[in-house]
Structures are given as C-alpha cells and as structure tokens.
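Example A, followed by Example B.
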Amino acid sequence: MDETLLGHLSALRRSLLRAAAGVAALLLPGFLAAPAATRALVRWAVPERLGALHYFAPLEAFRAQLHVGFVLALAAAWPWVALQAWAFVRPGLREEEARALRRWIPLSTLLFLGGALFACGAVMPLAMAFAASFAEPGLAPVIGLGAFLRLAGSLALGFGLMAQTPLALALAARLGFASAAGLRRARPYAVVAILTLSALLTPPDVVSQVLLAVPTLLLYELGIRLAAAAEIRPRP
C-alpha cells in the first residue's frame, strides 16, 4: 500500500481517536446533567393531555439517561470534534485556505448548537402535539420515556448536523470546490440527498423526516446565496 495513503489513514485514525476521547471525557458530566435536561424537555415538549411518560423495562430509564448524556456530551465536545477535523485536513491546505477554515470552526459550533436547540425547543413540541392530536375517548396514548428521548436525541443530532449545510456550501465555494451556479444545477440531486439523510437521521416516521427535511432544504437555498457571496472569482 502506498506510504502516502498509509500516512493519511494514520492521521485520520489519530483525529478520530482524539475526537472520540473528547466526547468520552464529557460523558460523565453529560450523564449527571441528563435528568435535569430530561425533566426540562418533558415539561416543555409534552402536552398535558398526554399525561406522564412511562418506562416499560427495569433499565429503560437508565438507558434513556445514557442516551441523553451522550447527546449532551457530543454537543459540548463539538468544538473539539470540529478542531480535530480541521487538524486532519490542515496539511493539505494552502495557508489562506487554512485561515478560512479555522475561522469557520466557531460558526460550525454555533450552527450545531442552534440546530439542536431548535429541534428540542420548536420541533419536539410540534411533534408531540401532533401525536396528542390522535387521542380520543376510546384511544389513550401511552408514550414511553425511551421512545420520547430517542426521538429528541435523533432530532437534535439530525438538526445539528443538517444545520451545517449553508456553512459547508459557503466554505466549499470559498475554497474553490463548488460554485453557486453548480449548486443550483445540483438542486434536484440535493433534494434526494436531503430526503435520504432525513430518513437516516430520524426515527422511521414521516412527520420527523418532514420536520427535518423542509428546514434543511431552506438551508440549502441559503447556502447557495452564501456560496455566491463567498466563492472565489477570477480577477478582471
């Protein structure tokens, strides 16, 4: 195997291990903060007519707390994860490209956190209100804690990742890998890709997928406009 390829694989392995170590270091604080975060999310997102949440297995509440702790740890460690990604690609960039990418790491963090907060603060109440709309005298919902938190975690992670769309497109244009015109031509393929990713990043229900796909399509359109402003144009 080519030594250059081995070097790239070794660097990628180091970056992934460092990113994973950063997340792992925050798992315990995330686990300890999970109960308070869960109570706040339940109070905010669950309509009163749905009643209390339930758990159906002895360790389901514990597993749910682990899930929330991991999401909190990942959100807190995102700047470190983004920094490791930058460190991996830095050797292959020119100095001006490296400066541009380094400046955008804080923006990536803000977009990830903003997307996650939007999912929990705005999308989860809509999803739970939609679920409650099917309740009637002969049909009472019994919602499990684990299912509720899996939905919240999936939406938070999905929205956090998909919120990177305009930044990624603008950065690609700034580095010369894409153009606004090319992104417009690729719009049909982008729609298919966004719908596919929305299906992969959310639970298998149409409502969650639509709630993620529609904002992401709007972010793609925003990314085209940012790319038009950021792309490198030849000097006259």
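Example B, a separate protein, is given below in the same form.
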Amino acid sequence: MGRTIVIGDIHGCYDELNELLNKLALLPEDRVIAVGDLTVKGPKNRAVLDLFLTDPRFSSVIGNQDLALVRHWRGENSKLKSAQAKAFTELKTDDDRYLRYLASLPLMINLDSHVVVHAGLRPGIALDEQSADDLTELRTLGDDRTSREGTPWYEVYEGPTTAFFGHWPASKPRVAKCAIGLDTGCVYGGQLTAYVIETSDFVSVDAAAAYSP
C-alpha cells in the first residue's frame, strides 16, 4: 500500500514542488492530491499542469484561482486580475489542454476518512450539499465568506471527516480538531507543505523566491 500525500497551494511553483517530491522520495504506489490553486501568481504554471496531466498518481481539487481561469475561458468572466491574465496567456494553447484539465477538476475529493477541498466547508452542512462558493472561497463564518476577520470555519467544523484545505496562507499549517490547512504561502516566499496521511507527517520546503507580493 502506498502513501496518500496531500499538498498545499502550488500556484505555479514547479521547482519547489519538484524539490518537495524529491524530499518525500515519491514511490510508484503513492498518491498525491493537491488542495487546488495549481496555477496563477507563480512562474511555471505549464510545468505544474504537465506533471498533473501526465502522471496518474497526481490529482487535485479546483481552487478559486484555477476556477477564475476556467470561467474566463468559458466566457463567464470577462475580467481577470493581472496575475490571472498572465497565467491565462501562458496556459492558452490551440488545443486548450491546460484549461480543459483545470475545468475537469472536482470541487472535492472524498477519501472517506478525509476530504480534500480548496477553501472550506460550511459547518453543519452535509458534504454533498456544500456550495461551490464555500468550497473555493470560504474563510470565516460572517456575512463575507472571503473575509479574514471573524470566526474561521475550521474552528467550528466537527467532521464527520477530517478536511484538508488551502486558500488561506499562514506561516505554518493550520491544525484544528477536524481540519488541516496546508497553504504555507510558497508563492509569497514561504514554504510548500505536504501532509502524509498514513504517518501524520508534515514535510515542507522553502520557496526559492517570493514570486508574488
């Protein structure tokens, strides 16, 4: 039986991702799941997606940055932020393979004992009834789900499964009773962090640079 490795927000930081995988000594039987935001803000979006497209061990949920690119590609969102526009230009190809891949990503990956989402889960709501906006944007439980001020959802969430999430960068993993946040701000000059479910180990590597202010 291989390991199940969950990785925080990658944001196009391919060199750090490669270093992290080497540090983990990835095996053929391992499984790697990302918490979304594979793209935008970092320098090597294509390289990250090439890995996820070609290696069957890799999967991911969709993040809010990935989703913005998909919606723009579909004509649902005409305006992109500058970092998103740069990533969109990098990923737009004649066959649209990168954008098609991002569009294929699920909002949630259910591992039975654990669940992987990008941003959060609304406490008291069944997994199959969670909204796409909460799954990709939720931070706190006030009127504005995107706000950093207020009660974090993961402090209230009580299962039934442990949730892995990203979206909300911090200097170290956010660890609560039934949730683990893995966004340690690699693209901002922090770290890229993974969690190995079978051994309960955190593994991190430092960012080579602060790619985004």
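On Example B: The beta strands are 4-7, 31-34, 58-60, 108-110, 114-117, 162-165, 174-175, 179-181, 191-196, 201-206.
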